[in-house]
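hey so u asked for the seq, here:
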Amino acid sequence: MRLLNTLKLYILVAIIVYSIQSCITTSSFETGKSLGEGVLQTNIAFGYAIPKLPVDKGILHRQNSPILNINTTWGVSKRLDIGLGFASNPDYYIKAKYMITNPESIISASIGSSFFISPNSPEHLNSRLNTALYTSYHGLDNIIMFMNPELVIYNYNQFGGAISLGILFNGLLFCNSDNFDIGFEIFNFNAANYQQQTYSIGIRLRN
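ran it, C-alpha cells below
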C-alpha cells in the first residue's frame, strides 16, 4: 500500500512538473547522515531560481522562475541510501549516498551522486551527473545544519561547481518529531556558460 501511494504521488508530480518551466533543478535538503536500514523518506521542496549569467542563447528565455522538486529515498542499509525523483523543468533523476562517518557522530559526512535527465533543457544540460560531499551538524536540539559542495559534469566533458547551505528544524514549530523536518536552503551553481542561485523551503517526511 505504501508503494502504491508513492507511485500515485509520483504520477501527480509528473503532471505538475510538465506545467512548470524553470531553470535547472537544485534543492535536495540532503544531510551527511544516512536514513538507516528500512527507513523511507520523501522530500518536497519549493524554490525560486535566479539565473545570474544566461549567456547561452538556449537559456536566455529562462528568467527568474519557480522550482518544484520531490524525491523519495530508501535506506538500503545502515550507511547506504538510494532514491529517485521528479522536478520542474522537468528533470528525472536517480541518486545514491553512502555515509563515511560514524552514524552516531554529531558531525556527519556522506559521498553521493545523482544522475539527471532533463529533456526540456538546452542541449548541453540534457544530462548531468552531480557528485557531492554531504556534510551536516547534528549537535543542536531539533536543528540540523548542512553544507554540500558538488561537482557537476554536463555535456559529457564540461564541469561546473555547486554548493548548498541550509538548516532543518526537526518537527513542526520546533516540536520534537523523528518523522518530520522543515527547512530552508540556498543553492549556488556556477559553470562557464551558466550561473544560478536558488532559494528553497522544504519538508522531509519519514516512515
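Residues 15 and 165 are 29 Å apart (CA to CA). The longest helix spans residues 2-18.
lmk if thats what u needed
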